[in-house]
Amino acid sequence: MEIELAVFWNNDDYLMVLIEEKYMGRTCGLCGNFDGQELNEFMSEDKLLDPHKYAALQKIDDPAEICPFEDMAITHVPRKKFARVCSQLLSLVSPSCNISRKGFVIRCQLDMQACSDPGQRNCTCATLSEYSRQCAMSHEEVSDWRSDDFCSLGKCQANQIYKECGSPCLRTCSNPEYTCSSYCTYGCFCPEGTVLDDISRNRTCVPIEQCPCTLNGERYAPGDVMKAACRTCKCSMGQWSCTELPCPGRCSLEGGSFVTTFDSRPYRFHGVCTYVLMKSPMLPHNGSLMAVFEKSGYTSTETSLTAIIYVSGRDKIVISKNEGLIDEDELKRLPYRSGDITIFRQSSTHIQMYTTFGLELLIQILPVFQIYIKAGLQFQGNTRGLCGNYNGETTDDFMTSMDIIEGTATLFVDSWRSGNCPAAIERDIDPCSMSQLNKMCAETHCSVLVKKGTIFEKCHPVVNPVPFYKRCVYQACNYEETFPYICSALGSYARACASMGLFIGNWRSTVDNCTISCSGNQTFSYNTQACDRTCLSLSNRELECHPTDIPIDGCNCPKGTYLNHKNQCVRKSQCPCYLHDGKFILADQSTVIGGITCYCINGNLSCTGRPVDPAESCKSPKRYVSCSAPSGSKYGAACAPTCQMLATGIECVPSKCESGCVCAPGLYQKLDGTCVPPDECPCEYGGISYAKGEEIHAECKTCTCERGKWKCIQNSRCSSTCSLYGEGHITTFDGQRYVFDGSCEYILVMDGCGKSRAFHTFKIVTENVVCGNTGVTCSRSIKIHLGNMTITLADRTHAISGWNPQTEVFIEENALHLVIEITIPDKYEMTLIWNRHMNIFIKIFREAKDQFCGLCGNYNGNLRDDFETRSRYVASNELEFVNSWKENPLCGDVFFVADPCSKNPYRKAWAEKKCSIISSNVFAACQKKVPHKPYYKACVRDSCGCDNGGDCECMCDAIAVYAKACLDVGVCIDWRAPDFCPVYCDYFNSHKKNNMDGTYTNYINELNCTWHYRPCKCANVTSAKVNIEGCYNCSSDEYYDHKKKTCMPCYIPPTPTPSITTPTLIPTPVPPPLHNTTIIITTTPRPTTRVTPPQRGKCQPVKYEQRVDHKNCSKTVTLTRCEGMCPSSAKLNIAKKTVDMECTCCMPRTIYMKEVELDCLDSDKPLVIEIPFFDDCICNFDGCTQQLNPTV
């Protein structure tokens, strides 16, 4: 049985309750005590009652309802009266059913006796129906015994047919492959080879080829074609078969601090610097696009975009928020052309930059300075910078200038600084939490985006308004100028709708403070352009006649009038004529150009004759530079060469000159301020600096630091993880995050999702139930279908049914987790980690790019299309997407996502306080690798919602999810404490497993103190395949290998090589600490104090002292050496005739460089050098095989 409780009602006279066996002996009421004994059902106080008296005891004591006691008269039926007829009727229902007929015969006799016309067969229908149902539940054959004049169910709707034993697993156009484990039942069903058309809602059965499709609530017939942004879709078999169309890339900078990359990855940052927005080899003359961010208020997060810079070998064009245009430091008037670039005013609020090489910029001047970038297809896969790499994959958009993918936006942004600027900050505090008044104001004015009945509602099915609403609230609270940012956010949503073909007009007049005033008798329009609205467009159409593909608003002249040089709208006959040098002549006046007389008529020059051919105090090696010094450089220290700038590969584009220290020519400044040659520039990742030659493993790549940039090699096999945790939080394989509250079974992930309905080799389903009074849900059980095998995870344990010989399954149990490793040869390797409660993590390696589908997305590297519905169309919001992946079509749809903190405001302060550990210094080592804000918000939401018991468990589970995300990137955080989410591992020291049922019940008199809690199997290493927290009994430098059934070392160091010249060398894999120098380490005599020798078989570190000499400086330092013995083994392999040996040696765990201050004879200042150092030892594992050569 798949469910704990099921209630069936036929809307009339039948009710059935099904429960699991685990409730046996724990029930009461009319349905009995469920103890397996039939004779004691009506017992009360050791007395056997009549059924009606027993039933009277079950009445609910409701003061609003009066139930009089009725003494039921007992009806006696002669033993043989109607008995033969009833037996015949039961045989008609099922001739061979093994269910006992005795009780049904008696019930049938009573039915006939009580009939208004005794003996009528139709009075027995209820009893016969129940007999049919009981036989079906026992999987006995049931006949089609009903007829039009005997126990008829009435006429079936549409073309459905009556069956006495039909499958209740309703197959529909929305879900034609629905399967369930249930017994047959009677009713109306679709004929064989058809499915129910649930989309048309006419209860008609159709062949699957005739199934319609649905989109945004509208129905489309088979064969209908829909054209949307960048794709064309055709309705086929109830699904949309879509073809992707070539579309340009779009990147935007909105709301002061929000960026959306070409591949649609949104992020926010607060920095004050000039950043590389986009660079590409496809831009001519080594061109690049920059963005200037400056402070715009008192707080550190009030930063905003103030200027856009396009720089190349030929131009340096600056467009600033004050509408100024500068080219090569000279102020220019609009419109302006320089070679392949044309810049003009498209409306009173927008400036457009058009180029002939495929790059277009639309700059919004008012109410907030914003930019929209459009890049042609030739740039695809050839861009770098804040706008991402435009390769169709969202997961690698945070590729830094050092060629490695960062985990957080601030570190990614910092790598693209084009100047010597401070690092960007990452705001941890919600700006709306600082003032409830500001928060209420922001939510009130921004709610127009999400409310029903507003002008924006018609766009909700096309563009999800929730992200825009959240951005609007943040901007309104963060910036002092509230309404410009609110209006800008509303305008961004209107623009997003227009980009999808849904135009929203007149929205500014429906909200406060968003109207735009026009001057010079211009008029406002929601869809305007400069072409044929200015006098200039009459003189030179090439300067201003470049329409935008997405409508823009603003002020322009009414139709039939044109904007002149005085910003007034005039008739064509009054237009001046513009010359190439920026000058103009008034209407009806003349000028001589190249010896030709030209007259200005209707804004155009009319010339006669033949035109002339136009083809004729710093530490060395730094030095101080001053902006005030005549000999100083133009921008001073603002363009000081840094390793970070070297990585970007572009010239510095500062906004102003700054005095300061700069490195000597040929040297570059590191993050720590020191100067190095370019070959020695370090690389950065996760906020950590790595020296030349160091290797890291990140994002399925092995990367080596070379000349300040990461050189990465893609690993042959990569994986991705989908997580479902807490109260409906999901992160897809491609990184899309969303929340849903639904009480149903949903498909998490399955394969075989191509255009044809292929057979899937696996399917993972989650069942959700309500777990709080606010209506939020939590994952209750997980079912893993592997062909004929099903693994069910529920009630903190697992169960396996069926068998699949083509699938390998390995299950590892931990006190806190259940780990399932599944291998489908030549296709997938899956690892599922379940915390026995609400969290499930699905990690998949795959051999080929098979198509996946479900709540976990399609696993194609692009989060833009993760909301692909069962009908293969991309939904605009998560609710439409989630509803399409219901496993049972009879479940209701989800129409909203509850906000638990709004319904339980008294819990919010407690939730924020407890969850703040995620943003605290406890997780500081991880916060630069894994963004913590989404996990903090999820924790607060879950902690507010779990108000029905287990509130601390919900909070602890949410924090554990972030801790696991940190472990996945190699950061082990010890965050639990005795008074904060404790784990009781000592239980296993005093109890042992009961061999009978696997429970831990037997108390041990002698304590076994080997079990302890550890936040990870292995700290900061990746030897363990699944690195999770739990109760472990291996040593701190080992983990338990469930397959080898032994403790294995966490870290196996590479073969050591000497790195420094010394009589006694310390092995180290790191490069020499000093360039072109030698450090001599002299061993001092051993101390006279007796040192306790290490225990035999125990590898451990031992401290000792050594003298270090270098350049007439020296010091005695305390170092560490490894001493002790490690286990080794050798065993015979008779089948292979080999000796299999496992050898270990006592070696350093990790070697790193440590600074040491040496005392110098000729200087008061100490000399700081780096030496190799380690402080822990492990047994290094290795294995070998020797062929047997036995002697006689």
From TrEMBL:
Highest taxon, organism lineage: Eukaryota
Cell location: Secreted
InterPro entries from the UniProt entry: Cys_knot_C, Mucin_vWF_Thrombospondin_sf, Ser_inhib-like_sf, TIL_dom, VWF/SSPO/ZAN-like_Cys-rich_dom, VWF_dom, VWF_type-D
Annotated keywords: Disulfide bond, Glycoprotein, Repeat, Secreted
One GO cellular component, as annotated: extracellular matrix
Residue span, VWFD domain: 1-68, 249-433, 720-892
A Pfam family reported for this protein in Swiss-Prot or TrEMBL: C8
Primary residence: secreted
Descriptive protein name: Mucin-6
Organism placement in taxonomy: Eukaryota, Metazoa, Chordata, Craniata, Vertebrata
